Amino acid sequence: MQHPTLEIVRAAKSFVKGERVLKDVSLTISKGEMVALIGASGSGKSTLIRSVAGLIPIDKPLDGSDGEIRAFGETMQKNGRLTAAAKSLRSRISIVFQQFNLVPRLPVLTNVCVGFLGHVPRWRGTLGYFTHAERQTAMQALTRVGIAEQALKRGSDLSGGQQQRAAIARCLVQGAEILIADEPIASLDPSSARRVMDILAELNRVDGITVLVSLHQVEYALHYCPRTIALRKGEVVYDGPSEALTPAFLGELYGAESEQLFLPGIEAARREAPARSSRRTGHVNGQAGLQPA
Description:
This protein is α/β, with parallel strands linked by helices. The chain has a domain at 1-31 and 44-87 and 213-293. The chain is 32% helix and 27% strand. The chain has helices spanning 45-52, 86-90, 108-113, 122-127, 132-144, 160-174, 190-207, 218-224, 247-254, 266-272; strands at 6-16, 19-29, 34-38, 68-71, 74-78, 81-82, 93-96, 178-182, 210-215, 227-232, 235-241, 279-284, 287-292. The strands form two sheets. It has an eight-stranded mixed sheet, sandwiched between helices. Strands 2-1-4-5-6 form a five-stranded antiparallel sheet. α8 packs parallel to α10 (266-272).
């Protein structure tokens, strides 16, 4: 029996006692899916992303039952504790942040080679020593994302879009099977944002990498992701085909907050959205709905 690539079971999280940021979130993502995670500010998107990546622990659900996050069929964390399998599982999961997280003074090539750190001896990582073969692999990754000519520049010398592409190249050399992107285009201009989303879509389509991408603009979910999960106040309020996300429907889900989620081009994005999803049963606020395969 094939397990889901990613499974979240009743995830809850509080940073302040009595204030739940995540409330009983459960969902599964299958191998090779490209899924958007949307929600207005404060909906819990970043907290969920960081929990899935193993960067923060989840709590017990309100009723005291078990909350759990599984990857590749193995438990990575449960009720605030990382398991013995967490380290090996996290090496198969890579995360791209909005802030790029490059070391400004290091060459781009070295920044990309940092993706090898989970696979090389600690002394080599400490000294920043990477083999010729590893550097060649990093160059191939930079070529994949279209910035090979920037390899010897300092990280700080790249534009925002180029830095984000370097961060994605770092995920490639890591050999990630799941790529989680937390608002990767929020600080980019539209042209750079489309280029970054094109790269994520290509890695999903060509390499079979499972992609979960947190987005603030629904237009990009419509165009690139067959499936969208919508959070509101820490709860999943929709999980289904992105094509259903009309302004009217978003208004029903989010009320006035829906204005944060789309720009005037949403209808054009809906018309251009690739027909990449088939129909199967999903859920909208607990009611039967549609969900892409």
